[in-house]
Amino acid sequence: MQRRGALFGMPGGSGGRKMAAGDIGELLVPHMPTIRVPRSGDRVYKNECAFSYDSPNSEGGLYVCMNTFLAFGREHVERHFRKTGQSVYMHLKRHVREKVRGASGGALPKRRNSKIFLDLDTDDDLNSDDYEYEDEAKLVIFPDHYEIALPNIEELPALVTIACDAVLSSKSPYRKQDPDTWENELPVSKYANNLTQLDNGVRIPPSGWKCARCDLRENLWLNLTDGSVLCGKWFFDSSGGNGHALEHYRDMGYPLAVKLGTITPDGADVYSFQEEEPVLDPHLAKHLAHFGIDMLHMHGTENGLQDNDIKPRVSEWEVIQESGMKLKPMYGPGYTGLKNLGNSCYLSSVMQAIFSIPEFQRAYVGNLPRIFDYSPLDPTQDFNTQMTKLGHGLLSGQYSKPPVKSELIEQVMKEEHKPQQNGISPRMFKAFVSKSHPEFSSNRQQDAQEFFLHLVNLVERNRIGSENPSDVFRFLVEERIQCCQTRKVRYTERVDYLMQLPVAMEAATNKDELIAYELTRREAEANRRPLPELVRAKIPFSACLQAFSEPENVDDFWSSALQAKSAGVKTSRFASFPEYLVVQIKKFTFGLDWVPKKFDVSIDMPDLLDINHLRARGLQPGEEELPDISPPIVIPDDSKGTISCQENMPSDIDESSVMQLAEMGFPLEACRKAVYFTGNMGAEVAFNWIIVHMEEPDFAEPLTMPGYGGAASAGASVFGASGLDNQPPEEIVAIITSMGFQRNQAIQALRATNNNLERALDWIFSHPEFEEDSDFVIEMENNANANIISEAKPEGPRVKDGSGTYELFAFISHMGTSTMSGHYICHIKKEGRWVIYNDHKVCASERPPKDLGYMYFYRRIPS
């Protein structure tokens, strides 16, 4: 039990004299050098523990280190004290009590609550009629747990008082990510007060809008000067279009436009072409009324339909969320929800599915003591620590407890309310994993499939020793390319982590119904009538699987047999089957106008899946291989004389992905490195590599390979390569050894931290028990030397091959018209029944919509 020695009594807190001000000052003197005043840029965590989801609302409160400003729950503060020696913490606690009832039984009249002074990001209703809140802060000095109540201006040294005030008044480190405050930070347009509006008689109907220049019906903007409705381009909300609204501004100079479909009584998305940013218009209601739009009666939707319009009775939103059914809430280990931070449901759905997999549970939650004990000095910036924290929060059941009647009665009698935490908030996790990523770090909706691959990449880069839970997803794809003219073939292999199935729309089994529905829908739109009941295309899963296995044409295929471009076809097969197969239905696409669209289809996904017939067979008798000759390197005109050495280029780089990236404007050599270092996983994953490395000085330098006098980047081995293949750079090893550390210790620390110097030093300090492992070092050094002198083919990526027979255990569904909007939820089969995870709500599923999913997770059935 924690021992508390109050300054106003003897240790143990009973019957002593109150200590004088000088005694308090004397007690703090030894610790004064460690107490800091937060500076600009310091992140002050006073809402959430670095290792758990404890907060000031938790029973034990929260301890904020007065030097690092990291926060720790009661269970973890001792660990930080032992590791760092920091002794002074601010203890924060918010008490929740039932309000005193009046004589008539009702709550007493509201008064301004002066007992609340903590600025916390919580869901507390501070104006509740039923409960009252009281905040408490005090300094605690370890290891004796002396407590000093705050505020205590008279007795505390001035520096300590200033530091305490600064911590208490600091803003949340996540404040900029909150969608509400993000909108509040928008500037008021300088054109809003004196905006000219033409009296041209234009009136905007409540629906049926289309661009005046190209007939697009999505991403439409209303110019607030002349009432023109025109399509946007790639603006701040990532919507697509042909840019006619911007062209209109350049022609006419009318500065402000509002996005149709976002208008609600609370506001709308307004953009200023002149100021080149989203803005606020304080007079928006007046400006909209000029064109016949009553802002107070608008309800923002994607297509302009209002809530009182007739909507399809089987809408995607209703079916996927199982609306209208009495769903039973689920509590306990594995049934903890994740609160939505504002378009964070894509992350929540993926993480719920990930932590339902035993390999991830063992790798992180199973290693919790070791990961937490050896975490760096700032655990909020460590991937493995935050993964373990999230996994424990989801699986422990600590944050998913059902209300017990006896406990409620006892709480009422004590006049203190202990609120049951309804899910956990993944703020710290999201802030870290999305750091430096242009999309995931925003508040916009994202593609769950892209986040899944981003997460796998992070797991690969931060693997714990030789343990890599993402091995369960990795498989090899054999690609067979045939030259149509010479009939010669080439077989190559690449790494992948999910199977992408095309939607075979042409195989719909209800084509007549679809044609009739489309005609009726167009007629209803033309006559401004309610839309008919939705008819969804029904696609057989077998047709999608057949479309996946069919040959496809290869654009710009260069035949090494002809030494020229020729027609080519490609087929893909599984060179290995993963332990867990992730299947993505390619529902999202771009039209010819580059507007994102979604196929609203029903696919009869099987509970049991057998893809053994897709096993690769390799070179067949009678087939003749294409010569192993690389195509000539074409240097773009804007490459500024960059010359590439063809002989230095590995032959397995996916040239189509390279050219996709080059067409975006990135240097050709950078594109080659991105594709190579991401294992030919495609342009999307390579694009993420470019974003992370584009500030490096050698970003556009040619790719040089070991054996040609160069050294590949430390990030090259990200797909299952043995940890012994990753020899740390000698210059970094030299830096650490120059500080007095052993060479073997430096090498092991760098390998454990992916060659990150700062993290390696943290690792060394957190591993004081390090003992030289001679066998390990000899094996590592010999392997490094072998890599330099050996010309043998390097070991391929690790895969867990086996049978291609699987059973479905989870799927993620998306509601909305594109990945840039809408909502994600997850269904997981646990203990023989399906469970729906809809943000913080976790319930037993009554009718899982397996035919409407976007990503499906299958586990191998042992043969």
Automatic annotation (TrEMBL):
The record's GO molecular-function terms, alphabetically, read: cysteine-type deubiquitinase activity; cysteine-type endopeptidase activity; ubiquitin binding; zinc ion binding
Q: Which residues form the active site?
A: C345 (nucleophile), H823 (proton acceptor)
Q: Any idea where the USP domain is?
A: 336-861
Q: By its UniProt entry, which SUPFAM superfamilies does this protein fall under?
A: Cysteine proteinases, RING/U-box, UBA-like
**Recorded superkingdom:** Eukaryota
InterPro entries named in the record: Papain-like_cys_pep_sf (IPR038765), Peptidase_C19_UCH (IPR001394), Ub_carboxyl-term_hydrolase (IPR050185), UBA (IPR015940), UBA-like_sf (IPR009060), Ubiquitinyl_hydrolase (IPR016652), UBP13_Znf-UBP_var (IPR041432), USP (IPR028889)
Q: Name one Pfam family in it.
A: UBA
Q: Where is the UBA domain?
A: 652-693, 727-767
GO CC terms on record?
Answer: cytosol; nucleus
Per the record, the GO terms for biological process are: autophagy; positive regulation of proteasomal protein catabolic process; protein deubiquitination; proteolysis; regulation of protein stability
What's its catalytic activity?
Answer: Thiol-dependent hydrolysis of ester, thioester, amide, peptide and isopeptide bonds formed by the C-terminal Gly of ubiquitin (a 76-residue protein attached to proteins as an intracellular targeting signal)
Q: Which SMART domains match?
A: UBA, ZnF_UBP
Keywords attached to this entry = Autophagy, Cytoplasm, Hydrolase, Isopeptide bond, Metal-binding, Phosphoprotein, Protease, Repeat, Thiol protease, Ubl conjugation, Ubl conjugation pathway, Zinc, Zinc-finger
Q: What is its EC number?
A: 3.4.19.12
**UniProt KW Repeat keyword:** yes
Q: Does the keyword Phosphoprotein apply?
A: yes
Compartment annotation: Cytoplasm
* Record: residues binding Zn(2+): C211, C214, C231, H244
Q: Which family does it belong to?
A: Belongs to the peptidase C19 family.
So what does this one do? Deubiquitinating enzyme that removes conjugated ubiquitin from specific proteins to regulate different cellular processes.
Q: Fill in the subunit field for this protein.
A: Interacts with UFD1. Interacts (via UBA domains) with SIAH2 (when ubiquitinated). Interacts with BAG6; the interaction is direct and may mediate UBL4A deubiquitination. Interacts (via UBA 2 domain) with AMFR; the interaction is direct. Interacts with UBL4A; may be indirect via BAG6. Interacts with NEDD4.
Would you tell me the protein name for this molecule? Ubiquitin carboxyl-terminal hydrolase
Its source organism is: Gorilla gorilla gorilla
